[in-house]
Amino acid sequence: MAAVRGGASQRAVAARFAVGRGTVQRALARAGTTDLEVVGWADRSTAPRRTRRVAPELEALVLVRRADLGTSLLGEQGAVAIWRSLHEQGVADVPAVRTIGRILERGGALEGRRRVRRPAPPPGWYLPAVAAHEAELDSFDAIVGLRLFGGAHIEVLTGVSLHGGLVAAWPGEAIHAPAIGAALVEHWRAVGLPGYAQFDNDTRFLGSHARPDVLGRVPRLCLALGVTPVYAPIREMGFQAAVEAFNGRWQARVWRRSFALDTAGLVALSAAWVTAHRGRRASRIEAAPPRRPCPDPLPAARPGPPHGRLIFIRRTTIAGRADILGRSYPVDAAWPHRLVRAELDLEARVIRFHALRRRDPSDQPLLAEVPYRLPSDRAWVARTY
Asked: I need a labelling partner for 37 at 20 to 30 A (CA). Which of 47, 62, 118, 212 fits?
């Protein structure tokens, strides 16, 4: 203030003391023409000088009226009912409905409970190795129902890794099990094998649903390469969120720009965009868990049941049972309508059911261990990949 009164400009003073010009102007207005030595520079309260708080007597009347309305014929005792009752009684200066609600909240007269906001579980929380950042999870999905200008129908196989955000997309006229297997081999030979590969329960990813205990080409390929296939729960939100978000991004950045392209042009545009997307996430991809090299050539396909482990994320029924590969297995009657992780060990011939809770993602106790009867060799209809 002494510098400004000495003739310096407000802008120069603000720059000299590293404050805003508004701060200088507020100080000038506060000082006025008073001597600087007697101006009170202490911080002032931010509370308003005047308040329009409801009188304590009226607040007490609102609480009493709510108790009276609880015994009325209708039993309505909310803020709107209290406001209407006070108007009918002829009370002067009736508070607004929202104000009555705040009075009820301050008086502890509300029966409802506020929703408890808990932190979200870590990515891949339902797989302990993935949640601990010890293994990578590749999620795959299919985009269907697209049609190029000119009549060609298009389906797209998409994939994204959970930790690294490594994306992939394969547009084509049809996405079937042999094409999916070829795309996975091509992808994993280029970037390495993850610990887990997650899919939905589509027949092209799991196998035919016509009979129980049938595994298609895709899970057989994963088991042959030492990748644990994971199948997301049916009609559950969140488990495939990463790849579904990538599906929307691919359609917004690639599909909407391919109006005048043919299938070959769409494939080239998608490959270029995927390469650019990977370049942007290079640091994140490098920080992801390490991958194993993909064998070349692939292990020879063997007839009969494969070896390894499959994981199914399921929600139990009201009786505490879970459906795995077309069969229902008992889990726990005290765990109805809850999530479980079913680990199907083909070598040990057993299914282990672990409890899953988003509230406590690290606690996954074993609920049940059910023997799994391997079907006869004829039941394994898909013998190659």
From this structure: 47
